[in-house]
């Protein structure tokens, strides 16, 4: 408890001084040193969010960036201070360039520090960057993962807009922590920290996300039984899969499960609007399910990686 108090105080003071993002990231990184699964430290992230006014997902990105910058500094013999700049989003792009080509990545980091390049420039470089000597299969998978990550971000934004208009202005949409035996890519709708809705995203590319396979629908519907409101979400263009999901949930007597679709901008659009789960009166069922199947309860190995 004392450690948490010192952490939140340090973060609060850093924000009041107007310290840059990497100072906040370093404070959190030092506090989390040695922790095997940082994402599960809910109390730490909640306190940090309260102290900084920043969402936990953003704070986690800052820590991840500091970890990656430390690795690059070690690999190149460059002081970390020489790799820092004011925009963490731009640094993320530069590090993606570094992963593809270390020379170009280091050049981008130096240009960012000298304010010689914009985020738009880095995005164009990533788009135009050829595979080079990379293994074609690995490059194709990497490119697909980039697209998938973008689609997940687009989905979250679309769900936030949908929730504001359909579920109430207090709803916050966050990506759900992985649960064993259930569909991997999902979101929670929170109202003052309480889970009031759930959404599972199903994307078409099975090679990138094998858990988004046909049996993933059954996993989603099993989870839906513990949620007050639940919807299956599909990208625009996957209408056939969306229709199949609607038919399957109806066949199972779960007509209250919604089916939504989203595009790269604007709110998610209901194909079938979700209704309240008639079997749910409290949140205890979902809380118990999360406690039983949270990722922290499993051992290491290939399944330990989250989306």
Can you put this structure into words, describing what you see?
By secondary structure, the protein is an alpha/beta fold. The chain has 2 domains: 2-130; 154-304, no CATH class. 52% of the residues lie in helices and 11% in strands. It has 11 helices and 6 strands. The chain has helices at residues 2-17, 21-31, 42-52, 56-76, 88-100, 102-113, 119-128, 136-166, 214-224, 239-251, 284-293; strands spanning 171-175, 186-191, 194-202, 230-235, 258-262, 269-272. The chain has a 6-stranded mixed β-sheet, sandwiched between helices. A hairpin with a 6-residue loop joins strand 5 and strand 6. Helix 2 (21-31) packs across helix 4. The longest helix has 31 residues, at 136-166. The protein is globular and about 60 Å long. It starts with a helix and ends in a 14-residue tail after the last helix. Residues 207-212 and 296-307 have low confidence and may be disordered.
| Largest sheet, strands/sense/barrel | 6 strands, mixed
Element-level helix/strand string: HHHHHHHHEEEHEHEEH
Helix content: 40-55%
* Structural class determined from secondary elements: alpha/beta
Strand order of the largest sheet: 1-2-3-4-5-6
The rounded distance between the terminal residues' Cα atoms is 30 Å
Quickly count the domains: 2
């Amino acid at each position: 408890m004392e450690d948490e108090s010192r952490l939140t105080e340090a973060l609060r003071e850093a924000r009041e001084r107007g310290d840059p993002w990497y100072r906040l990231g370093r404070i959190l990184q030092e506090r989390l040193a040695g922790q095997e699964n940082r994402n599960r430290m809910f109390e730490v992230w909640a306190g940090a969010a309260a102290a900084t006014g920043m969402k936990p997902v953003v704070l986690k990105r800052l820590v991840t960036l500091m970890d990656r910058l430390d690795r690059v500094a070690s690999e190149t013999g460059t002081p970390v201070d020489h790799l820092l700049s004011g925009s963490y989003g731009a640094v993320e792009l530069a590090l993606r360039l570094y992963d593809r080509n270390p020379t170009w990545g280091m050049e981008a980091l130096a240009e960012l520090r000298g304010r010689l390049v914009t985020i738009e420039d880095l995005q164009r470089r990533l788009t135009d960057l050829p595979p080079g000597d990379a293994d074609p299969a690995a490059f194709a998978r990497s490119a697909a993962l980039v697209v998938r990550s973008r689609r997940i971000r687009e989905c979250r934004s679309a769900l936030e807009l949908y929730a504001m208009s359909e579920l109430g202005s207090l709803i916050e949409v966050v990506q759900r922590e992985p649960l064993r035996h259930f569909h991997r890519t999902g979101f929670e709708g929170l109202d003052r920290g309480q889970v009031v809705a759930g959404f599972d995203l199903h994307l078409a590319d099975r090679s990138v996300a094998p858990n988004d396979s046909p049996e993933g629908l059954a996993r989603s519907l099993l989870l839906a039984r513990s949620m007050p409101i639940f919807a299956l979400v599909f990208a625009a263009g996957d209408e056939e899969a969306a229709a199949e999901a609607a038919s399957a949930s109806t066949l199972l007597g779960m007509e209250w499960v919604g089916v939504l679709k989203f595009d790269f901008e604007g709110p998610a659009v209901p194909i079938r609007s979700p209704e309240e789960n008639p079997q749910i009166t409290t949140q205890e069922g979902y809380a118990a399910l999360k406690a039983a199947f949270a990722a922290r309860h499993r051992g290491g190995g290939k399944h330990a990686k989250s989306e």
